[in-house]
Amino acid sequence: MKNLIKIVLPILALTLASIACSKDDSDNDKEFSQENPLTSFLQKSGFDELINNYELGAYGEIGYKFKPKVKGTINAVTLKIPRDRTNIPVTIWDAETRAIIKTVTIPIVKANIEATQNIQPIEILPTKTYIISANNTRSYYERMKADQSDIRYPIEAGNISVLGANYMFSRDILGPTFPENGEELRYLYGDVSFVFQQTNY
User: Fold this and answer.
1) What is the reported pTM?
2) What is the CA radius of gyration of the chain?
């Protein structure tokens, strides 16, 4: 009997260890789905209720501030505007330092059709805040709630917390410019966004 136990126990231990390793490998290999927070943000904020189209609006930088709830990557940037445009720069900023993390040029944007530009994944962390913005689109949507009341931030959109609308309008803006007029509570000028993918639990 003792000999049997001596034989069985090591086998049982190896089996349990194998199961545990298999589970860890499975968790590590899990690939999370990609998400664009824009649709959820617009719905939850009410910014999908009243929209004015500007086909030849002001020069400037338009976008929003956000913070991821989990570690992940930005895999693409997106832009939708009411007029055909070409070569529009979209920039991801460190909101605290105002440093440019990445500027991506979207070569062709068709009116009222979301354009997506894939990029080399950029890691973003839940301990930091970011801004995504588009430069000198000259064409944008001015979004408001139907009653034109203020928005209460943050707005939770999947794994992204949207912290406010950011913009900067000026004829002097020639290239990517930090949209320092932030936390606009009544309007959102858009639509610029990104595709996010969680990378861990």
Assistant:
1) 0.84
2) 23
